[in-house]
Amino acid sequence: MKKVSVVCCNVRLAYGKTEVLKDVSLDIQPGEFFALLGPSGSGKSTLLRLIAGFNQNQSGQVLVDGQDVSGLPPWQRNIGMVFQNYALWPHMTVWDNVAFGLVERKTPQAMLKNKVEAALDLVGLASYAQRRPNQLSGGQQQRVALARTIVIEPQVLLLDEPLSNLDKSLRVQMRQELLAMQRRLGLTTIFVTHDQEEAMTTADRMAVLDKGVVQQVGSPQDLYDQPVNAFVAGFVGTMNLLPCTVTSRSADGVMLDVAGAGSLRMPPAACAGLDGPAGQDLMLSFRPHALQLAAPGAPRNAPWLWMNGQVEAREFLGESTRYRVQVGAQRLIVDQPHAVGAPSLPVGQAVGLGLAPGQARLLAD
Description:
It is a single chain. The chain is of the alpha+beta class. It folds into two domains: 6-234, 3-Layer(aba) Sandwich (Rossmann fold), CATH 3.40.50; 238-364, CATH 2.40.50.140. 23% of the residues lie in helices and 36% in strands. The protein contains eight helices and 20 strands. The protein has helices at 44-52, 94-104, 109-122, 138-150, 168-185, 196-202, 220-225, 230-235, and strands at 6-15, 18-28, 33-37, 59-64, 67-68, 79-82, 156-160, 188-193, 205-210, 213-218, 240-250, 253-258, 262-266, 281-286, 291-294, 305-316, 320-327, 330-337, 350-355, 360-364. The longest helix has 18 residues, at 168-185.
């Protein structure tokens, strides 16, 4: 199966005066597993349906393997889509559901039989061919929907939150199976989800959308470690944000006055793209696991930013304990690894919080 690219060039879509997609441009590589991530109403499902041909853009282009398909109806695009509700025919057997697209294409019977058998083998449902959808679990129904889409050999596979109807443990299993299948087929796949864990564990790259605008595109690790703005920082994982003000700049980095915490020198790598003058207001961002807890009077590493706070709440998450710590007027989240027998800090406990400059990043306010 040929691997193809999908390119969106300055795509705009509006319903009346409401802009749903605003000048969206994406370059999805052949054979890539690409995720569209964002909150409800961000435009991710609208974009997926536009690529499939169910929505029509007012301007811009959608290119599949270099061909502009913007004006083509869905059935002429050779794109397969798996919907959130699976959309299986309840009166048909698994075999007939999978064969449906081939029947519509008037595929010769011998070829149809071989293709359906191969698709059912691929998703592990060969022994379920004569069952009906209501005799299957949610995960099995999803596999039928995938087999029905794959059997027509689409150039591109589109997945619109296909795991959202499954319980957590089954979602984990199915996303692993989905990725393994995609790797075997080498099929360019675009996956829509609002679940950051799903996107980060499956995608080669992903795009974060908000209000119809692409905020950032990159690998999961890039977006997690180097978010370009506060929205991406807060949406991809959990992020602490502290207001700060630039007091001076030099070749060694930037000196900051951090609200409620004092002064901190940030290395140049953490200040990329932020070259405003002294007095500029920024946000100091850092992940909950980057903070080190210490007793109020314990020795402190001099280059670090140290803050004094008080434990306000705690949650046991299994692998870690999450503390909410009040630092001046700010509330910070601190994740500490859990070890058997390790005591938890009580609510009301005074603590010191240490942050290494290399674990923080500056963002525009």
